[in-house]
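Per reviewer request, we include the raw input and output of the structure prediction for the construct analysed in the revised manuscript.
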Amino acid sequence: MIIGIFRKLRANALMSLGNAYLKQGRWEEAIANYNKALEIFRKLGDHHGEAKTLMNLVLVYFQQGRWEEAIANYNNALEIYRKLGDHQGEANALMGLGSVYFMQGRLEEAIANYNKALEIFRKLGDRQGEAHTLNNLGLVYSQQGRWEEAIANYNKALEIFRKLGDRHGEAIVLKNLGNVYR
């Protein structure tokens, strides 16, 4: 029991190191620490820790444009979150998948994942997640030249960010709206 606690502490410390390396742009060191943490979480049967580590690994792969590895890790995390009944984690993984597909130009897949995430965020009452997802849908629709749908999603996101008092989110959406009218 005590050994398990220490192993979990070690895994969390490795995750923190990975996060520090990620912020410094030291990708390989971040990946190495995340992989060590992942191994420990798997040995402990800590599925939440495993999924969280997979999500952190994706941040590195996203920065590096390693899309297939990002997709694989998001899908693995998604499967774990679904088995655990962790709807917040599921929505976050779907949102991430949507973002990777967007970056790859796989716009219909991005829309499908964003819409699944949006549905979950709404069920959870996660207004922040809902607003970010609506903004991301607006980005996809803008990319497709579907201006009315983009504007509608941006306006919904803007309304939510304003209600939440999230000035940063509001600024991002206003910038995106401005790009539509260029």
